[in-house]
Design brief:
The chain is an alpha/beta fold. It has helices spanning 44-57, 59-62, 78-95, 113-124, 139-150, and strands at 2-5, 8-11, 23-27, 32-39, 67-76, 100-107, 130-137. The longest helix has 18 residues, at 78-95.
């Protein structure tokens, strides 16, 4: 389900009480995209296709501009771990010659998260216009920021 208003498109999980996809906020006015939550859909290609299609509809707005993508995925299943970087790579290509800065926030208490991030970083920095920054965060603080900025409540999977 998506909600569109004033330059922002918000894709929210179909079942917010038991999400399998993240909240995705595409703020075309601010040139800032956010992925927040978990990603474990059975078919991530299908789940993320609607996002990519929306971005393609707005190519004339984003082409040649600088874009910031904040990623705060607390859990990403194996299938999503393949699709999410490919989607981000496609965004880098759509924005070119603009620059894409990807801020990847990960749970500082998750020992496996850093290894996953290295894979994403290696994959994405092959794009010449892509800068990748990672930051260990307290997930509760990041979730609170999302609530304040976007008015969304995120249920973290345990």
């Amino acid at each position: 389900m998506n909600i569109e208003k004033m330059g922002k498109v918000v894709f929210k999980p179909e079942d917010a009480s038991n999400p399998t996809t993240p909240w995705i906020i595409l703020d075309y006015d601010a040139m800032k995209f956010r992925l927040i939550g978990v990603s474990l859909p059975e078919n991530p290609g299908l789940a993320y296709r609607v996002i990519y299609e929306d971005i393609q509809k707005h190519t004339e707005i984003i082409n040649g501009k600088d874009l910031t993508v904040d990623v705060s995925l607390w859990y990403c299943n194996t299938a999503s771990a393949k699709v999410v970087p490919m989607m981000l790579e496609s965004i880098c290509k759509l924005v070119a010659p603009g620059k894409v800065t990807i801020h990847w926030h990960y749970d500082r208490d998750d020992a496996d998260a850093y290894g996953d991030i290295e894979y994403f970083k290696d994959f994405l920095t092959e794009q010449r216009n892509c800068e990748f920054l990672e930051e260990a965060v307290d997930t509760d603080i990041t979730e609170t920021q999302a609530e304040k900025e976007y008015g969304i409540k995120i249920k973290k999977q345990k």
